[in-house]
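Hey,
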Amino acid sequence: MSQADTVFQSRSDGISAEGVRDQYADGRAAKVWEIFIGDKKSRTENYRNFLVEKLRENGVRRILDVACGTGVDSIMLLEEGFEVVSIDASDKMLKYALKERWNRRKESSFDNWVIEEANWLTLYDDIKHLLNGGFDAVMCLGNSFAHLLDNFGDQREQIQAIRNFEKCVKPGGLLLIDHRNYDNIMDTGATPAKCVYYNSSHTTDIKTSVLYVASKPALVTLDYQISTGKDISEFRLSYYPHKLSVFEEILKTIFRGAKSHEIYGDFKPLTAVTNPAFYIHVVQKASP
């Protein structure tokens, strides 16, 4: 079997309602991922401090989390006093967020927490009824955006999704979006097992494969092996390998005339870190 056959056969057969492939559709990866990430106390101090401080210093009150997954980041932000609308394309991931909302429904912030299944390619039209002039911040973190693959070879769907994000940000508001350091992954063929977003007590091994199409990297497959105590759980996820320079240019084009576009490496200025595991973009939309 060729590498391409191995990669594409490993992807989930689940399709979300709007037509974009849901890699968590069988529920297995979602369940293990929830155990692996844990609750908000498992988030690293660097990440929590970076995110909360960046939001507060820009006067953010209302946030759209477009990759809420099991809800761990949204929950953290609700507990920090923000108003959060959370969406995800995977109903298997959302069920954990919905369960937490139900369990904490007596808290007003959780009772008012809006959770919906939605797709990035139709996002703006899907949530028009929730915009109310736009969100103070839209966030897509945890390497989530790379789940959207390049099905046409020209990144048209990624561009469409980011345009939808931009339309949901009010003038002067923020987009926070990240991706792994795929430049280094493609150079070395390896992916750091430790994530800067959470402190996991579970042993993790990640095997990395890169699929090339017409001599261009088109797909990175990560085989996760996670020890959850007695058992070893394995699952595979596929990602589009965003190059930093290309991603930066796409954001500049879509957020033309942006007030600012800051790039961080593992939550630090790029001048303070060498070869980060993650790049985090913070774009401030232009005011009228």
